[in-house]
Amino acid sequence: AQTVTQSQPEMSVQEAETVTLSCTYDTSESDYYLFWYKQPPSRQMILVIRQEAYKQQNATENRFSVNFQKAAKSFSLKISDSQLGDAAMYFCAYRSSQTGANSKLTFGKGITLSVRP
Amino acid sequence: KAGVTQTPRYLIKTRGQQVTLSCSPISGHRSVSWYQQTPGQGLQFLFEYFSETQRNKGNFPGRFSGRQFSNSRSEMNVSTLELGDSALYLCASSLGIQATTGELFFGEGSRLTVL
């Protein structure tokens, strides 16, 4: 079974600074997908960024980028130029690429990010 | 396009009762999955429905069940409620097409409190 570990329960960053959220996972599969989801206090989870394991290039979405280290099974999220609206709980998630596992995500415990003005 | 709609948003039940939660997916999405979120266990996958068929199931007791209707709307039911069932229940919809990254779109959740 796959597992996702987010070892830091909380982090804080100064507005306009850069912060990196860590995530490690364990799997015996070679092909899979990794995601970072954001859950603001209003509770609706939204996708921040995704990474396909077969792609060596790290995904980037505006101020958000990942550092995907497949051999180390590490998938960290970097948020540049942090904004007050980035304050939320962030979840790292894994999804198998195998048939029948389409919507089954395995989530980490999450990390609460606060942004100091 | 309307997002994922979950009802009710909040509800309080007592032990032994049953509860039904509803989820309307984004128009055109055929897959609906359910997750339970608690402070202690985090987010755990309950089940996924696609075209009215359960396609995947998490490790939950049989008291947790679901179904999907022909319009893709889904319901989940929890019978004989226990205190530990208190949680935020999240519904997510997606196109459900295999071999895609399958981005999930989440609703705001139904907050269940069991007394």
Could you write a compact summary of the structure shown?
The complex is a heterodimer of chains A (117) and B (115). With 117 residues, chain A is mainly β. Chain A contains no helices and 12 strands.
Task: Report on the architecture of this protein.
The complex is a heterodimer of chains A (117) and B (115). With 117 residues, chain A is mainly beta. Chain A has strands at 3-5, 10-14, 19-21, 24-26, 32-39, 46-52, 60-61, 64-69, 74-79, 88-96, 106-107, 111-116. In chain A, strands 2, 5, 6, 10, 11 and 12 form a 6-stranded mixed beta sheet that branches. Chain A has a 4-stranded antiparallel beta sheet with strand order 3-9-8-7, with no helix packed on it. Chain B has 115 residues and is mainly β. Helix content of chain B is 0%, strand content 52%. Chain B contains no helices and 11 strands. In chain B, strands 2, 4, 5, 6, 9, 10 and 11 form a 7-stranded mixed beta sheet that branches. In chain B, strand 7 and strand 8 form a beta hairpin. Chain B starts with a strand and ends with a strand. Chain A binds chain B through residues 33, 37, 42-47, 50, 52, 91, 95, 97, 99-110, and chain B through 3, 31, 33, 35, 42-45, 48, 50, 55-56, 58, 88, 90, 92, 94, 96-99, 101-104, 106-109.
